[in-house]
Amino acid sequence: MKRLLLFFMLFCGYISSDAQIAKWLIPPLYDKISLVSGIDAIMTDSADIKTVWTFSGKRLITSKDDLFPFKEGLSLALKRGTSSITTIYKDNGESVNVSGCSVAHAFPYYSNGKLLVLQGDDYKYIDSNGIILSGSYASAYPYYNGYAACDTYLNMEKKKDIVHLLIDNNGKPCKFSFQGKEFDTDDIQFVSSVNDEDIAITVIKQRVYFYNAKEKMLTPVMIKDV
Q1: Angle at 120 between CA 117 and CA 122, to 5 degrees
Q2: In this predicted structure, what is the pLDDT of residue 220?
Q3: Domain coverage including residue 207
Q4: CB of 218 within 8 A of CB of 175?
Q5: What is the pLDDT of residue 223?
Q6: Which band of pLDDT confidence, cut at 50, 70 and 90, is reported for residue 4?
Q7: Residue 116 within any structural domain of the chain
Q8: How confident is the model at residue 210, as a pLDDT?
Q9: Domain membership flag for residue 23
């Protein structure tokens, strides 16, 4: 059924007034044809050249690189067989060239409008226009529900004194406090990503807390809660 659907999408429904002749929107002379995940489009592959077309036959992308599904209207192209990012493609066909960045954690997708990348040994985030955002981290994870868990150094140059952070969508570290006392950055021993219920898990001074990102509040985890 999927093959039949794809065939009809490729085959044009235009009929001339003089002679009722149907024409191909996209010539079916390719090694492989598939639907694109994330947008309404078709990808053809011929001689290792990938082309993304709209259903109306407009060519959006042509690339020799490895193309990945669209997410949040954006798709990455990686140098074939590597994790090196070459291009960011937008769902309207616009492209942004990228150099010196690699995909982190084998996750070539945008989340919350940001892409986690590796630049040398440092983790960084870039926006949809390929601009590297402020902040450099020893380790980091993709944004999820508006927050990202990451580690940095108090002294990045010397790579000394690692600290654990939960940063918001603006890259600002969250402050943790309990019963009116704000904890220092070096008190934090662990912090997780924020789940779908806006909760993260933190370990501060050897005590485990739930952090409610929406209410900016810590709640100690008791034995009965585990």
Answers
A1: 60
A2: 96
A3: 137-226
A4: no
A5: 56
A6: very low
A7: no
A8: 98
A9: no
What is the per-residue DSSP string for 2-50? Answer: HHHHHHHHHB-----SSS----BSS----SEEEEPTTSSEEEEEETTEE
Query: Looking at residues 196-217, what average pLDDT do you find?
Result: 97
Which among 127, 59, 141 is positioned nearest to 98, based on CA atoms? 127
Query: Tokens representing 67?
Result: 């193309």
Buried b (16+ CB within 10 A) or exposed e, 139-178: ebbbbbbbbbbbbbeeeeeeeeeebbbbbeeeeebbebee
For residues 118 and 88, what is the distance between their CA atoms, to the nearest angstrom? 15
CA distance 80 to 212: 42
Can you list the alpha helix ranges (DSSP code H) found in 55-133? none
Contact residues for 102 (Cβ-Cβ < 8 A; gap 6+): 82, 83, 84, 85, 117, 118, 119
Average pLDDT score over residue span 28-57: 89
Task: Return the half-sphere exposure (C-beta side, CA atoms, 13 A cut-off) of residue 186.
Answer: 6
CB atoms within 10 A of CB 218: 19
Domain count, the chain: 1
Residue 6 lies in a domain: no
